[in-house]
Design brief:
With about 100 residues, the protein is mainly alpha-helical. The protein is built from 4 helices and no strands.
Length: about 100
Amino acid sequence: MTGPESEKPDLDCREVLEEVYLYIDDECSEVRRSVIRAHLDECSPCLAEYGIEQEVRTIVHRCCSKERAPEEVKERLRRKLSAIEQVGDVFTEVAERER
């Protein structure tokens, strides 16, 4: 088969985790979603990280969807999300070593 569907690139863990928010928010193309979904289906560390990211989004939306957060709260959230991202980097490194 030829065309874009047959030429989907494989993504490494770092690429998937960098784009997981686009995937969660449905802000990427269907082809890109398909490639990311295929990677998540095959990579346990990335799937675990995706689950964490999805849960964070759900909690933030549920808690803050109707209120504006003070800057101090936003900064604390940014720090926590950064810490989660660092954990994701560790998952990525482990996954890359296991391949």
